[in-house]
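Budget justification note: compute hours in this period were largely spent on complex prediction jobs such as the one shown. Inputs:
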Amino acid sequence: MTAIKASKLRKEYGGAAAVDDLDLEIGEGELFSLLGVNGAGKTTTVKMLSTLLRPTGGEAWICGRSVLTEREEVKALLDISMQETAVARKLTVEENVAFYAALNGQTREEAEETKRRLYDAFGLGAVAGKRAASLSGGWQRKLSVALALVSKPRVLFLDEPTLGLDVIARRELWQTIRSLKGKMTIVLTTHYMEEAEALSDRIGIMKGGRLLFVGTKEELFARTGKGNVEEAFLEIVCGGGDHE
Amino acid sequence: MNKGSFARTVTLARRNALEILRDPLSFAFLLGMPLLMEVLFYYLFHKMTAQFEMKYLAPGIVVFAQAFLALFSGILISTDRNTAFLTRLYVSRARASEFVLAYTLALLPITLLQSSLFFVVGGILDPSVWSVRMIPAVFVSLIPAVLFIGFGILIGSLCSERSVGGVASVVIAGQSVLSGMWFPTEGLDGGILTVMKILPFWNASDLVRGVALGEGGFDPAPLCIVLAYAAAIYAIGVVVFGRKMSAR
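Corresponding output:
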């Protein structure tokens, strides 16, 4: 079943296309990585798919619901973890989880179950009583990603979730993301090629708002004749790959 | 407002209140500094000049302290807006109207605390302040509070975190200089007094002062002017915040 579908999705700023007639289909339970250099249109694409930006043209559907005409229904299906850490800074970790659970209409029992689930998945119990502002960057990012899972979304957007993390924190977060594979559809945008290689079922490569490649790692290697994602990415982006 | 919307608003309001109350600067500016000024002005002037009367100063201090609500609501909204926190909430089921109401509800209990504190301290310093009218005056002070929260919503929706302080200080300075809280306004030049009576600041102080003192009967003009400003500023703030929140 298709979880995400975009058809001729387009966003223009002052006449310039940030996303240029993007066509894309992502299956349910898939982990799809969107790669691209700065300004490639990854975040704009994610923002349009998650109802944060209204497209200039085209259409997109999340689990069959239109992001244009069924925004409230779409919001109920997805959640997002932005590039920046998105937590209530003066609330403790426990209060942050309880806040998002309440905001999602969860009962006290459901909120308690959510807390246990997230503490297990992210190890947040160790810092439960600490205010978010006092946590390290790695813990703040973990909390930020964890909060996106409070609502048990069917589609999760992770916009550069490991940006700025040290190598240990990044690997820990990879482990957590890996544990989510198959349980929900995940769209991951990243600058880190090894991240896409380690986690993705399929990879999309964007440049200048256009999707230049969509496929598995193996298909990417076969197309470019390279043996790793970084080399293949450079070949596609710098070597003038065609829209697939 | 349905049950879900009410629950979300209360949840957001609780979070906003915690964010403000856990900032030591909030206490310093919303309570500490106005309290210091109330005490200081009493000891500096009550023996020096016959024109000084604590019963006139206390209601002025109440409204002056409320002006800082514009600063703290502005900072909170601007910070939320400029971080991914509000962006994340945009994807939740919460609506713009719930956010705005939650920012307001979080601050109204703080307003009641401010008003009660400054009337009580005024009464301790000068027993002439004590009156049963202090109770309705505390509740009437919610009206100018809504005005200043409206300023905060507007400023926080339009300004960056860095510029909120500067812009909100214009509102605070307006309340301090143009409200007539420090001195009697009767002897002022007619032009200045006319300007003061057109702007909301003098009227906000006069409204609370009028209810607290009950002298010369109830004058509806300050109430009408403050209500009109509060409704207009709050409505503009809500519209601007809503526009920022809606998908562009």
